[in-house]
Amino acid sequence: MRTSCTSGSQDIFAKSLLLMGRQLVLLVLISFCSSTLFAQEPETKKPDSEKKEEQQEKKGTGLESILPKPIIVINVASVERILSDIDFIFELAGRPEIAEIASASLANVNDLEGIDRNRNLGVELYLKTGLIPQPVPTMYLPITKVRTFLETLEKLIPGDEETIKKDTDRDDLYVINGRRGESIIRLQDDYAHMLFQGVENETSLDMISSRDFGDPSQKLQNLTADYDLAFKIDLNAIPELMRTTFLGFFRTAIETQLQQRDGESKAAYEFRRMSGKQNLENIEYFLSEGQEMVFGGRIEKEAKRGVVDMLIKARPNSDLARAVKNIPGKASYFSVITSRENLPLAISASMNLARRDRKIYQKYLDYFEKQLSEILLTEEERLQNTNSMQQFFSPVKTMVDKGHLDVFAQLASTPTKKFALIGGIKVAPSSNLPAALLDIINRIDQLPDNKTHIFTNAETVQGIALHQVQPDIKTADDKQQRFLGGVPSLYIGADNEVIWFAMGTEIAVAALNEAIETINTATPEARKEQRTAPGQIEFHIRPWLNLFSEAEIQESGVMKILDGAFQKENDLILVTTQPTETGVRTRLQFDEGYLKLLGISISKRFDRNQERREEQRRTRKRAEQLEKNLGIQDN
What we know:
Among the domains are: 61-96 and 107-238, no CATH class; 329-355 and 379-533, no CATH class. 45% of the residues lie in helices and 24% in strands. The protein is built from 23 helices and 20 strands. It has a 20-stranded antiparallel β-sheet, with helices on both faces. Mean pLDDT is 86; it is low at 1-46 and 51-63.
């Protein structure tokens, strides 16, 4: 049950909600156009005959119009869903009274009377074509009673000079007149469609009054059903000419940045240029092959977790559609260890690569092979097809060429509560791989500018020789000692089909040995079972807190809050990438502890604001009392 609270608290939340709304809208606008486009002065009011002539002229030339579909939609499932989320978050934080204040603050805006609090609302951003495309943002609000809604709207509109009157010719139009010009409210399908003030012109006003916007509760029902808050970019709504023009400007800007810089080495320049061109090609590919992108979030109260999705929908029968459909590959070679629980950090990928991605990875592999060959091999050796560099990279290239990526990396927490990084890369079988790696390590050791200590065959795990690369550091600093247990070394080795690595102290070697032993002793059936998503990142925060003593946690305000919010069962952040029927989805799922942390953080900020307001009140009261006392003394 929500109860009323002090007017001071209500003011804080009302201002906070208004500020958040303004920032959200501002972010959308800035993404598409310079802020100068919104600083236009209201046009001088012209005679009706002149207006009609201008409209006919514009329609005749076709130089300026508003695209038929919005390119961006920000959809809120409903006011009640958001209030329910707020209730849930502050309940987890043990501060339900804050949620009550948030609800009570709606009294400052007429309790949103006249607005249907159980249907979706939001913002649609259209584009006005022309020499410089201009965004035309409109808001859609579900309404129950028109008159009550208008009374609420008058409280929402800033300033006292605005008036809202019904159009003399049409029942579905209301006109807002004020110091910033004239705007229109269009009623359709029990929704009010409104221009944002500051973008009123003949074209946008005509759009509001004449366009069929459709019913937002129907056309956006998928967003509303799946997410409490969603942000959709519709690439199909952008005309091909506009898209091509944008890419032209973007390509020119990128290529300008890809010139060689003063003092930049040739190798660094080649890598930066290759990466920059690849990024440009990726953007072009996405704009040509993608249909829409959705960012959506919701709180699942029964499961006590939050979910944030990024969805990319591909154009039907496009290369992107075929590529993402084939992402899931065979079970990972490392499958039996990639699903271990409560690791501080775990990353795994076992997926099929599209033909386009294979070419990209081959370019990078060719680059690294070339650079290392120039450093480590003589000119004569580089001409030989059997040199160690070729024998090392060939199995990796073959695996990529076959179209399957299979890797893992884990930050393991050892029995001593220290961390060790371990990982592996599956490659095509090659009996030359271990010897090639040994030769490369030896050559690095012989470089005149090598400042590391290298020990070949320093350790052996499950019959695999590990070579140790140790930095020239004698004493571990506080962070190295706390997290890793000493000065870390890199251990690297290979068998005939995997390149293995570990980083840390000797405990890293033990962690890698345990992982390889688990793989080797697993049954063939267990190894064929895919236990994770094709691409997955897993993060647990509790093991990080275990690195600190109870005294250290209590002395640190931040760690004390984290310690109170997280337990072993509620500290997971899980990121997965999987194909959908129409594209690909990357999902970020976070446990109850993170929702609780959000509620605690907002509550503490609220308490500080309250304390600041109370201190200001006491200061004013003391000043008034002092002024009163001085007045008595003068008399």
